[in-house]
Amino acid sequence: MIQEVAADVALGLAVAIVLASSAGVLVMRGAYRKLHFVTPAALVAPVLVVLAVFIRSGLSENTGESLVALVFLLVAGPYLTHATVRAIRAHDQASERDPEQAP
Amino acid sequence: MTGFVVAAIVMLAAVVPCGIVVCRGKIMEAVVAYEVISSIAIMVLILLAQGFQRPALFELPVLLAILLLGSGLVFVRVLERWL
Q1: How many domains does chain B have?
Q2: Domain of residue B49, residue span
Q3: Contact residues, chain A, for B39 at CB < 8 Å
Q4: Which of A73, A89, B6, B38 is 20 to 30 A from A18 via CA?
Q5: Intervals of chain A under pLDDT 70
Q6: Contact (CB<8Å) B58/A65
Q7: What would the pLDDT profile of B27-75 be if each residue is shown by its tens digit?
Q8: CA distances from A29 to A72, A76, B20, B23 (A)
Q9: Which phi and psi angles does B65 have, rounded to 5°?
Q10: Residue ranges of domains in chain A
Q11: What pLDDT score was predicted for residue A31?
Q12: Burial tier of B53 (Cβ tally within 10 Å: 0-12, 13-18, 19+)
C-alpha cells in the first residue's frame, strides 16, 4: 500500500514537472528562455519516473532497462543543451549579419 | 487503468503546447520544443510498458534515448553550420 502511494506521488511529481515545463516552453519568449525549461523535463522528470518503476517493480528487468534509458538521458541532456546554445548563438550572429536571411 | 497509464496520457497532453511551438515558433525555438517532446516520448514509452506490464516494450525507450543523443547533436550541428 505504501509502495503504491509512493509510486503515485513520484508519478504525480513527474507529470507536474512535465506540464510546467511544457507550459514554460509555450509561454516564454525567445529560444534562450525556453531552453531553461528543457532540463526539468529531460532530467528531473525521468528520474522520478524511473523511481516510480523501481518502487513498484523492485530490482527487476523493467527497472534495469529503465535505468539504462535514464543513464542515456542524463548523458545526452547537458550535451544537447550546450550544443543547442551554441547553435542559437551562431544563428543569432548570422541573423545580425544578414537580417533578411533569418527565418 | 493504472497510475502509470494515466501519467502517460497526461504527459502526452503536455506534448500539445510544445507542438504549437514547433509549428508556429522560430526555428531555434522549435528545436528547443523538439528536445522537450523527445524526452516526454521516452518517459511515455517507459510508463506505458510498465502500465501494461510488457517487459519487452522497455527496449523502445532505451533505443529512443540512445538515438536522442545522436540525432539531437546531428540536428543541432546542421542548424548551427548551414542555417
Answers
A1: 1
A2: 3-82
A3: 38, 41-42, 45-46, 73, 77
A4: A89
A5: 99-103
A6: yes
A7: 888 989 999 999 999 999 999 999 998 888 888 999 998 988 888 888 8
A8: 29, 25, 14, 15
A9: -65, -40
A10: 2-101
A11: 87
A12: exposed
